[in-house]
UniProtKB/TrEMBL annotation:
The keyword Plastid does not apply. PROSITE patterns: ADH_ZINC. It comes from the Bacteria. Residues 7-343 form the Enoyl reductase (ER) domain. It comes from Halalkalibacter okhensis. Keywords: Metal-binding, Oxidoreductase, Zinc. This is Alcohol dehydrogenase. Belongs to the zinc-containing alcohol dehydrogenase family.
Length: 348
């Protein structure tokens, strides 16, 4: 098969590579769409810590073209989304149903070959039927489940006011879930006016660009001086990771979805707010719960199929498999404004 093979940081080669027949508990997926995750980009500008050569891509969907002798849950021709995470099922977290915290998990696209290829072998237990869902939408189920994992666990109350820092893909998806959960008003915060305009189209009542607006002043204005009930950090910036602590009301909640890529040093005021305002801080990792893969995945599929989630509008670029290098170059160098970037290994 053809694949975009990673040989070193941000060095992809479009080449032929062998793929095994399915094991007895596996299926072979013909990949129709695969998303590039923000974490993929970070790995290209820092250090790749997994075996090389590698095939990246942990957000993908397609249809089954082969199945192992013991597979009974799906059939050849079924349209499916891949669950890239393989919990060990034996550590204390797995046996407690907290699969996102598994200490010995496998992962497609890093520890084993992923979706930037024409085909992928996946355990049959790690696929979910998608019905007639568009493959491009299905490739975004994984990030949608990541956003839902945060929203479900921050437990918004009907009528809450929330702020979302960083309105890239995860931020926009979190906004949509917060609206569904009954949040009364959402304030989108980003340094890109273009991203803020997209957030407004997705239902955000207010936006703030801290580059040319007074963040604290605007928050006070919009919340009658109280601060927001919930702050979601989706930017992965040490600046916004601190600002969450400054804009949240007493007894408010802060959810961290963005990865910290550098040390976070807090001002005295920000740190004091944690205990003086009795804030609740929660971090959210991955998107899995019991029974595996969890309601994050099943609800994401249900809401997409019911037309309750907008995904197509978030896709800005599509690249054929042979242009995977160009896709990463665009995102790393920010040569254009982009939203969700997809790799298309096969055409219908």
């Amino acid at each position: 098969m053809k694949a975009a093979v990673l040989h070193s940081e941000n060095h992809f080669v479009y080449q032929d590579i062998a793929i095994d027949n399915c094991q007895k508990d596996e299926v072979k997926i013909k990949v129709m769409a695969a998303g590039i995750c923000g974490s993929d980009i970070h790995k290209m500008v820092s250090k790749w810590k997994y075996p090389l050569p590698a095939i990246m891509g942990h957000e993908f969907a397609g249809y089954i073209v082969e199945k192992g002798s013991e597979v009974t849950n799906v059939e050849i021709g079924d349209r499916v989304a891949a669950i890239p995470f393989f919990p060990c099922h034996t550590c204390e977290y797995c046996t407690s149903g907290m699969f996102s915290l598994c200490e010995n998990h496998g992962m497609l696209g890093s520890k084993s070959y992923g979706g930037f290829a024409e085909f992928v072998n996946v355990k049959a237990s790690n696929v979910l039927p998608i019905g007639e869902m568009d493959f491009e939408e299905a490739a975004m189920i994984e990030p949608l489940a990541v956003a839902l994992h945060g929203v479900l666990n921050i437990q918004p109350r009907l009528g809450d006011v929330a702020a979302v820092f960083g309105v890239g893909t995860i931020g926009i998806l979190a906004i949509q879930w917060l609206k569904i959960a009954g949040v009364k008003e959402i304030i989108a915060i980003d340094i890109s006016d273009e991203k803020l305009a997209e957030a407004k189209e997705m239902g955000c009542e207010r936006t703030i660009n801290p580059i040319n607006e007074d963040l604290m002043g605007k928050i006070k204005e919009y919340t009658n001086g109280q601060g927001v009930d919930i702050a979601f950090e989706c930017a992965g910036s040490k600046v916004t990771q601190e600002q969450c602590l400054l804009i949240t009301r007493k007894k408010g909640k802060i959810g961290y979805l963005g990865i910290a890529y550098s040390d976070v040093v807090l001002s005295e005021k920000a740190f004091e707010n944690i205990f003086r305002n009795e804030l609740t801080l929660k971090g959210f990792w991955n998107c899995y719960s019991a029974p595996f893969p969890g309601e994050e995945w099943t609800k994401s599929i249900d809401f997409i199929l019911k037309g309750r989630i907008k995904l197509k509008e978030l896709i800005s670029h599509r690249f054929p498999l042979e242009e995977t290098q160009q896709a990463f170059d665009l995102m790393i160098n920010r040569t254009e404004t982009y939203g969700k970037v997809l790799i298309i290994p096969n055409k219908e």
